[in-house]
Amino acid sequence: MTTTSLLPPSAQLLEAACSRHATPCGDGEMIWRRWGQGAPVVLAHGGSGSWTHWIRQIPALMQRYEVWAADLPGLGASAMPAPPLTPQSCGAAMAEGLASLIPRERRPRLVAFSFGAHVSTWALRQLGDHVDKFVITGCSALGLRDPRDMPGLPKERSSMTAAERREVHRGVLAMLMFADAARIDEQAVDLQAENVRQARFRSREFAATAEVREGLAEIRVPVRAIWGEKDAVARPSVAAVFEVLSENHPELIWRVIPGGGHWVMYEQPEAYTAALLEMLEA
Questions:
Q1: What digits encode the pLDDT tens for the residues 7-49?
Q2: Cα–Cα distance list, 236 to 31, 124, 189, 223, 256 (Å)
Q3: Is the peptide bond before 84 cis (omega within 30 degrees of 0)?
Q4: Structural domains counted in the chain
Q5: DSSP notation for 44-76
Q6: Fewer beta carbons under 10 A from the terminal one: N or C of the chain?
Q7: Rg (CA), the chain
Q8: Comparing C-alpha atoms, which of 35, 30, 41 is closest to residue 11?
Q9: Which domain holds residue 234?
């Protein structure tokens, strides 16, 4: 898929510094961006997102690691997966791409946010021990919540002005992505607007399943978890999430970022990056 980028300048500069790679995805390509040198770290973003969900981690990570940030199938610049359009088909494209770009002997670390963890769980079912460890943040599909728990999010309408559309994106960030609306800056709104503009795969309908919980039972690589203390998706609680994650992974190591919401890596970047580096280097 080819689109005209409307990314803010900071994201454009970061993208200009990467090398871009493509792997098969449905009738097109899955896009991966690479920065830095060292042990490989793969970043998988959330639903209706793109690689820019990690914009505040990549500069720090690339100083120590070879960073691969994927655009998941049907999101960002990547094509839709092969039918049926499910997290499983997205995971198959991701597994094929990761295995072709990073040899097994390099044992990449996989870091996944929200829907990216859902897709990554399916990918890991195919990849086996190709991956060294799996770090999860903010995922659903744990069999914990009823979809009716989440309020309806504001939506764009064709009759809206550009300013009104922008307020819709700000409203979604406040309801779902941030714990403290005062931390929503103009860059966050820019990124949200652009990510939603490019999103074609609709992931929200899969959030109420237990597919991640079931998949973790089949995954044997070590699992780590970093969650925002006030993540709106962590229903009924962050503690309940960690209990599920540890069911088949007693080795689980977890960290909670105080005051952090769902998009905790953007809202609390210093604390999140420090916790992530700890997980990667342990």
A1: 899 999 999 999 999 999 999 999 999 999 999 999 999 999 9
A2: 35, 27, 28, 21, 15
A3: yes
A4: 1
A5: E--TT--GGGGTTTHHHHTTTSEEEEEPPTTST
A6: C
A7: 17
A8: 35
A9: 9-281
Residue type, 93: A
Residue 49 belongs to domain with CATH number = 3.40.50.1820
d(CA 141, CA 119): 11
pLDDT at 151: 63
- What pTM was computed for the model? 0.95
Residue 3 falls inside a structural domain:
no
- Which amino acid is located at 240 in the chain? A
The pLDDT of residue 145 is above 80: no
Which of the four pLDDT bands, split at 50, 70 and 90, describes residue 235?
Answer: confident
Helix axes 87-101, 115-127, angle to 10 degrees: 60
- What pLDDT is attached to residue 150? 62
Asked if residue 76 belongs to a domain, the reply is yes
Sheet holding 19-25, edge to edge: 19-25, 28-35, 66-70, 40-44, 109-113, 133-137, 223-228, 253-257
In this structure, is residue 129 part of a structural domain? yes
Each residue of 71-125: pLDDT tens digit? 999 999 999 999 999 999 999 999 999 999 999 999 999 999 999 999 999 999 9
**How far apart (Å, rounded) are the C-alpha atoms in residues 53 and 197?**
15
Does the residue 125 lie in any domain? yes
Q: How far apart are CA 240 and CA 232, in angstroms?
A: 13
In residues, how long is the chain?
282
Q: Alpha-carbon distance 175 to 173, whole Å?
A: 6
SS3 220: coil
